[in-house]
């Protein structure tokens, strides 16, 4: 486990400086949810990017688009902490694939209205290196040819970068990588080949994503390049990130998931986002820990993936919010010790919330697709092997558990005709599979289906349902109606209301 090394107070101080466009909203009463959703869509970053200064700021070095490579040359020639003002026009970096800008600590790159940094489908990366406290603002960054799983802006995950009011569009790979304490606000990340954002691979802490728009990402359908898929596409992906606030973003029309946190992420706050019309899951929290998901509006997500499952006669309950081998654990420091899903509005998604735990996926199992990675509690993969794994504490701690998930105060509305659903939609689920592999696994049989359903403190309560909702418990074959779901066998959704086909 990593100890928390920064405080949320620093975030608050930073945001007072960088989120000026949101200050008026912060000082006025919160609108009703429907009004807030409409306002967020109407003010989406892609149509409302803040323009940069029309004249160079005092002391700024002026960058000339007519001179190829002027941006790199002047960055190299000037000291750390320099501000560069890019004139209107198209700035190019050279003809070699590795021509790129290497900022120095504290540099600022600000674009005049109409300033574009264009990789011309030749250069791999725009801004790279390990410099800290770099600001990128008011630029269009386009045409860069980053490889899969690599990024164009902040390619090497430098710390404390501020990325605001940029258009990052039509790049291959990911438009942006993330470093520790990175703040991303008011950006439009549109039509990039793989991801809008890729936050990856340890030492990335305390991110802030606020007021951005992610639309049309995974434009290259990267999953189709791999025989068995890659699990590496969507609007944004997080891997081993400790602390992220994702708020007030509009995430829509992406090919794949909206928000995907995969493998040993912790302490996420996902709030007040509008997540709609994504081909895949709106929020996918996988083999990770401790999160709050609140106040979001999720509309028409997973319709493409849902129909694909129907076409191949796969009855797995694909959902708008998918919690997979993830849960609350007080031993991992965070602002919460559970996964708390509340006060969200779900409208015409393929299904609602699925809690899943793969009985065959655990640290040191061949079924663990996060190869070589162990739980945050154990850390060392080699420990999760016979005979130790057969007794406590390893018997419990070698698993990523779907536990301590609370789903309450949400509104779930669905009209199957509106989403062209003939079967296998409008479902809520808590389930696992029958454990079978490897042959030394201590989790074989019904151990995990029984645990996730009845013994791991996963509770629905106080929700509102409209539509013909059904429920899956224990395993994919066990479809139950509302009365049984609420009854003594499962004791779910106490105090919830059901209308129009919900069972009453």
From TrEMBL:
Keyword terms of this UniProt record: Lipoprotein, Signal
Signal peptide: 1-26
SMART domains: PbH1
Every Right handed beta helix domain range: 232-305
InterPro entries associated with the record: Beta_helix (IPR039448), PbH1 (IPR006626), Pectin_lyas_fold (IPR012334), Pectin_lyase_fold/virulence (IPR011050)
Keyword Thylakoid: no
Pfam family, one: Beta_helix
UniProt keyword RNA-binding present: no
Protein name, entry field: Lipoprotein
Organism: Amycolatopsis deserti
């Amino acid at each position: 486990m990593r100890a928390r090394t920064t405080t949320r107070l620093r975030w608050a101080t930073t945001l007072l400086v960088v989120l000026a466009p949101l200050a008026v909203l912060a000082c006025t009463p919160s609108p009703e949810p429907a009004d807030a959703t409409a306002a967020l869509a109407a003010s989406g970053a892609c149509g409302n990017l803040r323009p940069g200064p029309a004249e160079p700021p005092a002391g700024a070095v002026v960058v000339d688009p007519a001179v190829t490579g002027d941006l790199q040359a002047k960055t190299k020639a000037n000291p750390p902490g320099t501000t560069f003002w890019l004139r209107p026009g198209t700035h190019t970096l050279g003809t070699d694939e590795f021509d790129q800008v290497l900022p120095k600590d504290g540099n600022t790159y600000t674009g005049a209205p109409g300033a574009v940094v264009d990789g011309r489908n030749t250069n791999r990366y725009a801004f790279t290196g390990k410099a800290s406290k770099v600001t990128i603002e008011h630029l269009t960054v386009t045409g860069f040819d980053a490889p899969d799983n690599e990024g164009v802006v902040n390619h090497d995950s430098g710390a404390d970068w501020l990325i605001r009011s940029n258009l990052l569009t039509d790049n291959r790979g990911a438009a942006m990588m993330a470093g520790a304490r990175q703040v991303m606000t008011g950006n439009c990340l549109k039509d990039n080949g793989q991801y809008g954002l890729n936050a990856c691979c340890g030492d990335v802490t305390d991110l802030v994503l606020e007021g951005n728009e992610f639309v049309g990402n995974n434009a290259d359908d990267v999953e189709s390049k791999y025989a068995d898929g890659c699990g590496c596409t969507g609007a944004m992906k997080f891997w081993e990130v400790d602390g992220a606030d994702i708020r007030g973003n509009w995430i829509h029309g992406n090919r794949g998931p909206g928000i995907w946190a995969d493998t040993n992420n912790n302490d996420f706050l996902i709030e007040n986002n509008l997540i709609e019309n994504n081909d895949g899951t709106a929020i996918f929290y996988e083999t990770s820990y401790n999160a709050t998901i609140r106040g979001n509006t999720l509309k028409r997500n997973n319709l493409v993936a849902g129909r694909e499952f129907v076409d191949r006669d796969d009855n797995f309950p694909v959902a708008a919010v998918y919690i997979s081998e993830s849960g609350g654990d007080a031993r991992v420091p965070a602002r919460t010790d559970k996964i708390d899903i509340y006060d969200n509005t779900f409208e015409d998604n393929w299904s609602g919330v699925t809690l899943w735990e793969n009985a065959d996926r655990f640290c040191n199992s061949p079924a663990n697709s996060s190869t070589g990675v162990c739980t945050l509690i154990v850390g060392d993969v080699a420990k999760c092997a016979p005979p130790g794994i057969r007794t406590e504490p390893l018997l419990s701690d070698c698993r990523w558990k779907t536990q301590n998930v609370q789903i309450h105060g949400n509104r779930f509305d669905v009209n199957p005709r509106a989403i062209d659903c003939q079967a296998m939609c409008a479902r809520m689920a808590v389930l696992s599979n029958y454990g079978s592999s490897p042959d030394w696994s201590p989790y074989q049989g019904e151990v995990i289906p029984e645990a996730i359903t009845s013994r791991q403190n996963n509770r629905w309560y106080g929700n509102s349902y409209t539509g013909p909702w059904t429920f899956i418990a224990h395993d994919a074959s066990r479809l139950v109606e509302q009365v049984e779901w609420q009854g003594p066998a499962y004791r779910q959704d106490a105090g919830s209301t059901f209308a129009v086909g919900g069972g009453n």
